[in-house]
Amino acid sequence: MNLALDTYIIPSVRIIYLFTVIALLFAPIALAEGLPDLGDYAQSVLTPLQEQRLGEEAMRDIRASNDLIDDIEITDYISALGYRLATNSPDNRQIFTFFVLSDPSINAFALPGGFVGIHTGLIQNTRSESELASVMSHEIGHVVQRHMARMMAQQKQDRIPSLAMMAASLLLALGSPQLGQGALISTEAGLVQRSLSFSRENEQEADRVGMQILDKTGFDTRAMPAFFETLLKNERFDGDAPAFLRTHPLSTERITDMRNRAEQTPYRQVPDSIEFSLVRAKLRATQGTPNDTVRYFEDSLHEKKYSDEVAQRYGLVVALLRAHDLEQAQQELDKVREMTPRHPMLESLEANILIAQNKTQQALGLYSDALKLFPKNRGLIYGNAETLLSLNKSQEALVFLEKGQQEYPDDDHLYVLQSQAYTQQHKNLLRHRAQGEAYYRAYDLPGAIEQMELAVKAGDGDFYQLSIVEARLKQLRQQLEDTKTK
């Protein structure tokens, strides 16, 4: 976390800025030479529950923005990679939520409560999956070492503001970075320098924890110093630091330390997963105009400028679909299928081509067949439910969605689809109830309460359904009240 940011254009950087302000507000007059030990005092300043609520406040605004990537295939890939790494962290009890922001800058950041954001620019500019994993491991290190709580624990208890004030500051920073920038400028230079020094110690500790996570997970540990060194060289060459370096101060000493630690681990040649390659190709295929993107992939294939032909051809199919060249898209997809085993991302892509060709019933059959092979894949689950709804098969959709919710009880989109199914059936109480559960899982507690209130007033539910809604409404109101008092 950089405590000397000067401009705030990217929304995710605004979030990082908030914690910069908080860190400055609670920066100690003098810091010990080492980082404070984790302990009861840090937790008394900012408890894990309070960290979780701060993170949820930030996530509510992130989800309401246009920056959050809502492509479930991209999100699930990053989440799967993140969970795999987090399992090998020093605190595997910490709950994590990984998400992706549409932003070309090379950056990633961690929020209180285990929320970790990854920029699309980072995914596309890492040269291997081990490099991407190294950055994610670094952010996981910040979370499990509770750096925010530890920074605040340096201060006396009576100088800590309420959680509500910190949450309000977060929302203010999200909405008006200029106000936050003014607060930063008004801070005494000496305080900034002391906080910056402390932040660098945090960064070094996150490096070390991240290196341990990377090693235990089976990735190439040498990817971490290699990637950071590339960023540092690019900064010197271009004269403009990548976003990651602006928010994570880097030095040659840190890189040397990382290299020395990597040398102590076994050398590994770790091949990239097919998901890493397909996700990168998909992100590239959704950039620029459809025709320009098609030409990019066609030229790359013609000149053999690729490291993975399957991924490159997959990207071409996505681009052709965007350009509505459906016949060519299907032909290219057939080539991809001949080159690699069946994969859920290929299944979903073919179903989307069929839907674009108005072959919706055929797409439904493809989803049904693919789900037998990949029953837990959310891209296929979403696609199947949405296709059922497009055919007005609401009851089939509801039965299918109920199974999906059992597998993914915290998935807000499944509740959105459930609400749409009840809308088709003109069941207003159940429609609002499902939408309320969707808002709740999207960290919008007031929105969830409003929907439950509408459900109570709908007047078309039976006694049992109404009792469930009233009980849930009471529970949500109490939870909202608790957030205001703690």
Could you characterize what this model shows?
Strand 2 (108-111) and strand 3 form a beta hairpin. The chain folds into 2 domains: 11-263, no CATH class; 392-486, Serine Threonine Protein Phosphatase 5, Tetratricopeptide repeat (Alpha Horseshoe), CATH 1.25.40. The protein has a 3-stranded mixed β-sheet, with helices on both faces. With 486 residues, the chain is mainly α. It has helices at residues 11-25, 40-45, 48-64, 72-86, 120-125, 129-144, 147-152, 163-175, 177-185, 189-217, 223-238, 243-247, 252-263, 274-285, 290-302, 309-322, 326-339, 344-356, 360-373, 378-390, 394-407, 412-424, 428-441, 445-457, 463-485, and strands at residues 97-101, 108-111, 115-119. It is built from 25 helices and 3 strands. Residues 1-18, 20-41, 155-162 and 167-198 have low confidence and may be disordered.
C-alpha Rg (nearest Å):
24 Å
Quick check: average pLDDT?
84
* SSE class: mainly alpha
Order of strands across the biggest sheet? 1-3-2
Largest sheet geometry: 3 strands, mixed
The SSE order reads HHHHEEEHHHHHHHHHHHHHHHHHHHHH
Beta strand %: under 5%
- What number of structural domains do the residues give? 2
Shape: flat
Question: Into which percent range does the helicity of residues fall?
Answer: 55-70%
Termini gap? 26 Å
Number of strands: 3
Oligomer: single chain
